[in-house]
Design goal:
This protein is mostly helical. It has 2 domains: 216 residues, no CATH class; 89 residues, no CATH class. The protein has 14 helices and 2 strands. A two-stranded antiparallel sheet has the order 1-2. Strand 1 and strand 2 form a beta hairpin. The longest helix is centred in the first third of the chain and has 36 residues. It is elongated and about 85 Å long. The protein starts with a helix and ends in a 16-residue tail after the last helix.
Length: 410
């Protein structure tokens, strides 16, 4: 079997698994955080089981449900106790597998960008992998320190550190890879919270009860705290998962700052729903988040204008087609010549003038404004060529009698 073909199927398999397991994990996380925020003291405490701290009634799918939460634990363990852990473990394992297949094993194409840093392919891989481990150790240390008992200072410190990580990654790897590795770091912290803190603490409480000892309430508190951290990290991670579709974010010269801003907005939205579940309807949070998104869009809007450079005069389609043939067609063609692709990525082809015009907005966004294409600048598109493309598009993309494809010089 062709190696490239096998890689595509591995990519599909791991990506599909990652989405399935991630949906299960995120669904459970959202539900239990909503549940914790929505529980209230029982209306008839004398009728509740001993130790019940709060209850919740719900209706779903034609059935009524009652959920009770104990202050620490029930007097005796039930025969069946459901654990929630494999969703987290399998999401992380499938995510790391996907990271390896797409980025680490193809680092020269997907992680190295010579316009960012001219480094050997192993360098961004080492930085990315090392960042996951070091990032977890720093976060775990802070979460286990007295600082974690002060939510606002803790949030500010960890947010500042995450922003620093985003900046650091953006200096040694391609913009897309930098974003994905920040997401991988957050996902690692979330999954390892489950593996190293939440599940062990819950297991210790269960084991204490099995020998008729009082469970350690502090262990339950620490597990709940990490679960809440995971809840706030969820929306930033979800944005990063879809960020590859939005080059105006990762392709911006201040991509790390945009990522930090969008992460803060996502965490803010999550905070609104957490507060609302507790009965605190802070209605201003969502409008502020929406205004921040609009402001971010304006602040980061493209400022490139080829007409600002007097050296760039009117550009003919013949010049544009030559640039596209040299820099874009190796991948985006019905018959790609680049070794990475057997078919055009995402089905995007620019073989004909009609195809070029049909994809004009994408060409402008990704090759001129954000400069995220060609991927890792593998085909060596120059700034002068980008300016010519921009000027041609600004002038209305005239075809001026498109004829035979000019022959690219070797």
């Amino acid at each position: 079997m062709d190696l490239s073909y096998a890689s595509d199927w591995l990519n599909l398999a791991f990506r599909w698994m990652h989405i399935i397991f991630g949906a299960a994990w995120i669904g459970a996380s959202f539900y239990f955080n909503w549940l914790n925020n929505s529980l209230r003291p029982p209306e008839t405490p004398e009728l509740e089981e001993k130790g019940v701290d709060s209850t919740l009634w719900a209706v779903h799918g034609g059935h009524f449900y009652k959920v009770s939460k104990f202050a620490v634990a029930p007097e005796a363990l039930p025969k069946t106790l459901h654990w929630f852990k494999w969703e987290a473990y399998l999401t992380w394992l499938s995510g790391i597998g996907l990271l390896m297949i797409v980025y680490w094993f193809q680092s020269s194409a997907f992680m190295v960008d010579t316009s960012v840093a001219d480094v050997a392919p192993w360098v961004p891989v080492a930085v990315g992998a090392g960042g996951l481990v070091v990032g977890w150790l720093v976060y775990h240390g802070l979460s286990s320190s007295p600082l974690a008992r002060a939510p606002v200072p803790f949030a500010l410190v960890t947010f500042a550190l995450l922003t620093a990580v985003a900046f650091g990654f953006s200096q040694v790897m391609s913009p897309r890879a930098a974003y994905i590795h920040v997401g991988a770091l957050l996902g690692t912290c979330m999954a390892w919270n489950v593996f190293f803190v939440i599940i062990p603490n819950q297991r210790a409480m269960v084991e204490a009860m099995s020998v008729r000892e009082e469970p350690d309430a502090a262990a339950g508190y620490a597990a709940a705290q990490r679960s809440l951290h995971n809840n706030y990290m969820t929306l930033p991670v979800l944005f990063i998962m879809v960020s590859n579709h939005f080059p105006m974010t990762y392709g911006h010269s201040f991509n790390w700052a945009i990522l930090a801003a969008l992460s803060a907005i996502g965490a803010g939205v999550r905070h609104y729903f957490n507060l609302k579940g507790r009965g605190q309807n802070k209605v201003y949070i969502l409008p502020v988040a929406a205004a921040a998104m609009v402001a971010l869009a304006f602040v980061t809007s493209p400022t490139f204008s080829a007409s600002d450079d007097d050296a760039v005069g009117p550009v003919s389609f013949a010049e544009v087609r030559l640039i596209i043939n040299q820099r874009c067609l190796p991948c985006h063609s019905a018959t790609p010549t680049h070794e990475l692709y057997k078919e055009a990525p995402a089905g995007a082809m620019v073989d004909t003038p009609e195809q070029i015009i049909a994809r004009l907005a994408k060409i402008n966004s990704m090759a001129v404004q954000s400069r995220t294409m060609p991927l890792g600048n593998l085909t060596g598109m120059t700034d002068e060529e980008r300016k010519k493309l921009g000027r041609w598009i600004q002038d209305g993309a005239p075809l001026d009698g498109a004829g035979p494809t000019p022959v690219a010089s070797p």
